[in-house]
From TrEMBL, chain A:
Keyword Signal attributed: no
Name of protein: Monosaccharide ABC transporter membrane protein, CUT2 family
Topology of the protein relative to the lipid bilayer: Multi-pass membrane protein
TM helices/strands, residue ranges: 12-32, 44-64, 94-116, 122-142, 163-185, 213-231, 251-282, 294-314
GO cellular component terms, A-Z: plasma membrane
Gene source species: Limimaricola pyoseonensis
UniProt KW Nucleotidyltransferase keyword: no
Chief location category: membrane
Listed PANTHER family: ABC TRANSPORTER PERMEASE PROTEIN YPHD-RELATED, ABC TRANSPORTER PERMEASE PROTEIN YPHD-RELATED-RELATED
Record key words, sorted: Cell inner membrane, Cell membrane, Membrane, Transmembrane, Transmembrane helix, Transport
Molecular function terms from GO: transmembrane transporter activity
UniProtKB/TrEMBL annotation, chain B:
Gene3D superfamilies named in the record: P-loop containing nucleotide triphosphate hydrolases (3.40.50.300)
One term of GO molecular function: ATP binding
Protein name: Monosaccharide ABC transporter ATP-binding protein, CUT2 family
InterPro entries: AAA+_ATPase, ABC_carbohydrate_import_ATPase, ABC_transporter-like_ATP-bd, ABC_transporter-like_CS, P-loop_NTPase
Entry's Gene Ontology cellular component terms: plasma membrane
Domain ABC transporter: 8-244, 251-498
Keyword Nucleotidyltransferase attached: no
Entry superkingdom: Bacteria
SUPFAM superfamilies, sorted: P-loop containing nucleoside triphosphate hydrolases (SSF52540)
PROSITE patterns xref list: ABC_TRANSPORTER_1, ABC_TRANSPORTER_2
Localization: Cell membrane
Topology in membrane: Peripheral membrane protein
From TrEMBL, chain C:
Protein name: Autoinducer 2 import system permease protein LsrD
Function: Part of the ABC transporter complex LsrABCD involved in autoinducer 2 (AI-2) import. Probably responsible for the translocation of the substrate across the membrane.
Primary site of residence: membrane
Natural source organism: Limimaricola pyoseonensis
Lineage, top ranks: Bacteria, Pseudomonadati, Pseudomonadota, Alphaproteobacteria, Rhodobacterales
Transmembrane segments: 14-35, 56-88, 108-127, 134-152, 172-192, 224-243, 303-319
InterPro entries: ABC_transp_permease
Subunit structure: The complex is composed of two ATP-binding proteins (LsrA), two transmembrane proteins (LsrC and LsrD) and a solute-binding protein (LsrB).
Pfam families the UniProt entry points to: BPD_transp_2
GO CC terms: plasma membrane
Signal peptide stretch: none
Length: 324, 503, 333
């Protein structure tokens, strides 16, 4: 029996290891620097993670349904550039819905290609990464976008404002996380996302319209990207064409860190939020103890591999792979 | 039998998996130059035993002796080098590579600098293919071959080494009659050269035609070895299932109601053609035939998973077109699919969610899924079908095969279908659960469902069906009533022989 | 090696057909649209095209091996950058400066060794932990990039060595040094994948991993060797490129992995592994570079290149599926 409990402890550590690691990190950083858990520092971390986090929420749906989305980075650049450009042309109250519509059209296009045409999502979104980047450059003519009158607009509200003492990006991140968590965990649609990712054939045999579910996950993802673009544009009030470049893989890292399997069928919105916060707090903690920002890359690398490895090891019941 | 030194001996092999004693002290002796059949129901431990012998699994205890030398089979390659070759049931080929590369997979002949010696490879392969009298060359891409020819490539692998024992696991499953003859010649040739052949098959006629001795496994235990010439099918069956076969026919027909489903002249490409039948409420219609006869494909068409080329489907007398499973479900057709794990269940999901998956849209509490209603459905069918699980939160992947199958059946019963199609309802399920599921199917019909049962097991079809449709090569050969059917006539029908006395 | 059926021929020939199409299109369109007086099919222009294809091309060839093997490597861009930093930084290391121009082969060696070691780390993790290569190399993409920054922070690393520049800009038999490297790598990998036991086993592993394991092929070492090969090639690519330019930014090479994968997929390598050809990838690389140059030649904005390449990638995927579609009556799943 003692052996069994030891095994159970091992299983628990492996499954919840990411939470355990998170707590250890927080304790360690707090001991190293008192400021780490100060309210303003915590809010600062969440705020600076919000853009990545919002995108990760959407990608969580895509990953759970068994697909990938590598296009979110360049799609975010696109929505940022578009909303900044339209802001000066048609005003913020029209620019924002127009940007959402355009971004979600791109999401719908990807959803159509992956869901209805059943094309490989890795390659489709890789192609879209490139194509949307080209689209953005064509739209902007390769120039940076800036809002002309930075003082005379309420547009900065989303990125820079705050309500009840909490910055708006945090509120938006929290609100989206709550809504999407309900959608995924409590609705019929959410159930179908898990079924399609867990076993797409069985889902079809159960009368689930798989193509439609996959399509909708990409629409949700693009909606989140549009929100992230809005936050980004509003925070900086001006942008380069490449503002989102490389984010696609960081977003994916956060989702995987949260414990979603790339094979689909597992993961939750809450876990993704944890994954995002871990990335944010590590970055912040390392800076606070005086290390350069790039040290977090190395730390993230180690953590991602350890997290996934332990998860796999717990499932197969042995640490090392049986591959000869 | 040319020698008294056994080619191969297994002694008291024990193999356990977490929670299961898959092999419980099994012993087996194979003499040189004999064809030794290994029989047993699904799950009796045949595959596990062969995987131990082939070096894929390591036994917990027991010995393997080759020519009376104790050996340890560390890996499949190790086993092969010691002269034990395993011909897999599921093809284990790299389709993009050539025949020669597949035959010598893992041991390509080398020249200097790790280069492949193509000349020698092709020459050696050609010699083996010659022996097998196949119509393809060593350079052919395996993906371009028919299934039967791919099987031949598998067999060619066995001839690359000086084999002492060759294991054939259900080798004829995908072969045509002509190809079988070639295979039997190959086996006879191996036998003549003093190789011990282990032959695993469910097909009695092959066992009696081919083999010298028969060993039987049941529930992981060795049940004895018989000389083929001195035994009968009945004795074998009894040893395999541990009791006399319940060959009782379904005599008490329930009140048969109106025609629920009628199919007229349905055809689908090369899969099946001109299939017609009808099924009434309160009736079980059995579909019997060999694997690949087109039964599953007919079911999949009815469930909207395939587009038929021609023919009509009538539900309650009204012609319908079923374009997707969604439409099929809406019209009251349910399908318990053949491949439980691949098609029936999301293994990583819990029991309740699997069970309510097709109706999750309808169980609503406001914008959310009504979990209370879901649990009620789960509880109802857990009790009704006696599903043994610690609770609805249990992942389906952790249940036994029988309980998994009951979850799938419950999933479709809870939809209250007009027509329930059950494809291979007891494949890979233990004997106890089998009869439970059989009783369940008969009860369903008695309660007014129209039930279609597809099965490859004759006792099963005979046991549950009111009428039996026999299929062969995509065609309906004959439809029997349970009164007129005999085992002989059924076997003839599914072999494509139309009885002269056909009604 | 294998007898080709028409479908195979069609697939292997497709990329070359596409290149011919591009050449014809840009030559004809260039007559009407081009601002420059030069013809598109100018010899110098084509030689330049090869040279410019080299950095990503060399990596893409390595990616072909990895993908045939059934894996993927997202960390090549970071390996590329780290090798470049090692190359340029090592030239000013105090204990090496005394070597004069002999520092060049030493620095090259160090850069290539860096690539091999980084690849080996990826391979070892994939082998020993059983974590999917996608995740392992996704992590490494971040981690290795972090290492790049550790050398010089956000500052570029520069070291211009004129001997090196002369070598890099040299032309032998009309071809640039970089082109020779590209072609050399292509030939070497083609021989490796079609002629050697390692290459054939790599195909077998990507095609049917279980069968390969059952046949006693040691999957782990083969995968690790392939990761070392692509690490080496990322290093070689850095050597070829930075010998000439002499300055590396810490963000150089990002998205190279995606370009390389694009070229490989255009060349027809199967995503799931087991099938693909080095020569076709070379075609994919040239097709992309041709597109870049061609669009510039006919006066299209350089910005549209990304749009066109992305669209073509998806179109290729779609066509490939249409070509391979099974007969009517297939199971709708």
């Amino acid at each position: 029996m003692a052996e069994m409990t030891k095994r159970d402890v091992g299983q628990f550590l492996a499954r919840q290891g990411i939470l355990v690691a998170f707590v250890i990190f927080i304790i360690g950083f707090t001991l190293a620097n008192q400021r780490f858990l100060a309210v303003d520092n915590v809010l600062g971390v969440i705020r600076s993670s919000a853009i990545l986090g919002v995108m990760a929420l959407g990608v969580t749906f895509v990953v759970i349904s068994g697909n990938l989305d590598l296009s979110v980075g360049s799609m975010m650049s696109f929505s940022t550039i578009v909303v900044l450009d339209l802001h000066d042309k048609i005003g913020p109250s029209l620019a924002i819905p127009a940007m959402f519509a355009m971004t979600m059209c791109l999401g719908a296009l990807i959803g159509f290609l992956v869901g209805y045409l059943k094309l490989n999502s890795l390659i489709v979104t890789l192609g879209m990464l490139s194509a949307i980047h080209g689209l953005t450059l064509t739209y902007s003519g390769g120039k940076n976008m800036d809002i002309a009158d930075k003082e005379g607009t309420w547009f900065s509200l989303f990125g820079q404002g705050s309500a009840l003492g909490i910055p708006v990006p945090i509120l938006m991140f929290a609100l989206l996380a709550a809504l999407l968590s309900l959608l995924l965990a409590k609705t019929a649609f959410g159930r179908k996302v898990y079924a399609v990712g867990g076993n797409g054939v069985a889902a079809t045999f159960s009368g689930i319209r798989r193509a439609r579910v996959v399509f909708l996950t990409y629409v949700i993802s693009s909606f989140c990207v549009a929100c992230a673009g809005l936050l980004q544009a509003s925070r900086s009030m001006g942008s380069q064409n490449t503002v989102g470049q490389g984010l696609e893989l960081e977003v994916l890292a956060a989702v995987i860190l949260g414990g979603a399997s790339l094979l689909g069928g597992s993961g939750t919105v809450f876990k993704t939020v944890i994954g995002v916060l871990i990335l944010g707090f590590i970055q912040n903690g390392l800076l606070l103890v005086g290390l350069e920002f790039y040290v977090q890359y190395v730390v993230t690398w180690v953590i991602i591999i350890l997290a996934v490895w332990l998860d796999i090891a717990a499932n197969r019941g042995r640490l090392w792979s049986p591959i000869a | 039998m040319t020698s008294f030194t056994p080619a191969l001996r297994l002694q008291d092999i024990v193999k356990t998996f977490p929670g299961v004693r898959a092999l419980d002290g099994v012993s087996l002796t194979v003499l040189p130059g004999e064809v030794h059949a290994l029989m047993g129901e699904n799950g009796a431990g045949k595959s596990t035993l062969m995987r131990v012998l082939g070096g894929v699994l390591q036994p917990n205890s027991g010995r393997i002796l080759i020519g009376e030398e104790p050996t340890i089979m560390a890996s499949p390659l190790d086993a092969k080098s010691k002269g034990v070759v395993f011909i897999h049931q599921e093809l284990s080929l790299a389709e993009e590579l050539s025949v020669a590369e597949n035959v010598y997979l893992g041991e390509l002949p080398r020249k200097s600098f790790g280069r492949v010696d193509w000349d020698r490879l092709h020459e050696k392969t050609a010699a083996i293919l010659d022996k097998l009298k196949v119509g393809f060359t060593p350079q052919t891409r395996v993906g371009d071959l028919s299934l039967a020819n791919q099987q031949m490539v598998e067999i060619a692998r066995a001839l690359t080494v000086d084999a002492k024992a060759v294991i054939f696991d259900e080798p004829t499953a995908s072969l045509t009659d002509a190809e079988k003859v070639v295979l039997f010649d190959v086996i006879a040739d191996l036998k003549a050269r003093g190789v011990g052949v282990i032959y695993i098959s469910h097909r009695m006629e092959e066992i009696f035609h081919m083999t010298d001795r028969i060993s039987i496994l049941r529930d992981g235990q060795y049940r004895g070895t018989l000389h083929t010439a001195e035994t009968s099918e009945e004795e074998l069956t009894q040893l395999m299932i541990g009791r006399k076969l319940d060959l009782s026919r379904k005599i008490n027909h329930a009140e048969v109601g109106a025609v629920a489903l009628e199919v007229r002249g349905l055809s689908c490409g090369r899969l099946y053609s001109d299939v017609s039948f009808e099924v009434r409420r309160g009736e079980v219609l059995g579909f019997y035939g060999l694997v690949g006869a087109g039964r599953t494909e007919v079911a999949e068409t009815l469930f909207g998973l395939r587009d038929p080329d021609a023919g009509q489907i009538l539900l309650d007398g009204e012609e319908v077109r079923i374009g997707s499973p969604v439409e099929a479900i809406a019209r009251g057709i349910s399908l318990v699919p053949e491949d439980r794990k691949g098609q029936g269940l999301v293994l990583g999901m819990n029991c309740r969610d699997n069970m309510t998956l097709p109706q999750v849209d309808d169980l609503k509490a406001g914008p959310f899924v009504a979990e209370g209603a879901e649990i009620a459905i789960f509880d109802q069918y857990r009790d009704k079908l006696d599903i043994r699980t610690p609770g609805w939160r249990q992942k389906v992947g952790n249940l036994s095969g029988g309980n998994q199958q009951k979850i799938v059946i419950a999933k479709w019963l809870s939809m209250h279908p007009n027509v329930l199609i059950v494809d291979e309802p007891t494949r890979g399920i233990d004997v106890g659960s089998k009869s439970e599921i059989h009783n369940l199917i008969r009860d369903l019909a008695a309660n007014g469902f129209a039930v279609i049962v597809i099965s490859s097991e004759m006792p099963e079809v005979l046991h549950v069906s009111d009428r039996i449709v026999a299929m062969h090569h995509g065609k309906v050969i004959r439809t029997f009533t349970s009164e007129e059917v005999t085992e002989e006539s059924l076997v003839q029908a599914i072999s494509g022989i139309v009885a002269e006395t056909a009604a | 090696m294998n007898t080709l059926n028409t479908n195979d021929l069609l697939k292997q020939g497709a990329i070359w057909g596409f290149i011919v199409l591009e050449l014809v299109f840009f030559t004809v369109a260039g007559k009407y649209l081009s601002l420059s007086q030069n013809a598109f099919m100018d010899l110098d222009n084509m030689l330049l095209l090869f040279k410019q294809s080299a950095p990503i091309g060399i990596i893409a060839l390595g990616m072909t091996v990895i993908m045939i093997n059934g894996n993927i490597d997202l960390s090549v861009g970071a390996i590329f950058a780290l090798c470049a930093v090692v190359l340029l930084d090592s030239m000013s290391w105090p204990f090496l400066t005394g070597l004069g121009d002999w520092v060049i082969p030493v620095s090259w060696g160090l850069a290539l060794l860096t690539g091999v070691v980084l690849g080996a780390i990826n391979g070892l993790i994939v082998w020993k932990t059983g974590v999917d290569a996608f995740i392992v190399t996704l992590g490494a993409m971040l981690g290795y990039r972090g290492l790049v920054f550790m050398f010089n922070g956000e500052q570029p690393t520069s070291h211009l060595n004129w001997t090196l520049v002369d070598f890099a800009e040299a032309q032998f038999l009309g071809l640039h040094t970089a082109t020779w490297f590209l072609l050399g790598v292509a030939v070497a990998l083609w021989l490796l994948m079609t002629r050697t036991v390692h290459g054939r086993n790599a195909y077998a592993i990507g095609d049917n991993r279980e069968a390969a394991v059952n046949a006693g092929i040691r999957v782990g070492p083969h995968m690790m060797i392939n990761f070392m090969i692509i690490g080496f090639l990322a290093g070689l690519s850095a050597v070829v490129f930075y010998s000439e330019s002499g300055s590396v930014n810490p963000n150089d090479g990002s998205l190279y992995e995606l370009w390389a994968i694009t070229a490989v997929v255009l060349g027809g390598t199967k995503l799931t592994g087991g099938s693909g050809s080095i020569i076709s990838t070379l075609g994919g690389v040239l097709a992309i570079q041709l597109l870049r140059k061609g669009l510039g030649h006919i006066g299209a904005d350089t910005e549209t290149v990304n749009l066109v390449i992305g669209s073509i990638l998806i179109a290729v995927l779609f066509l490939d599926r249409q070509l391979n579609r099974k007969a009517k009556g297939e199971l709708r799943t």
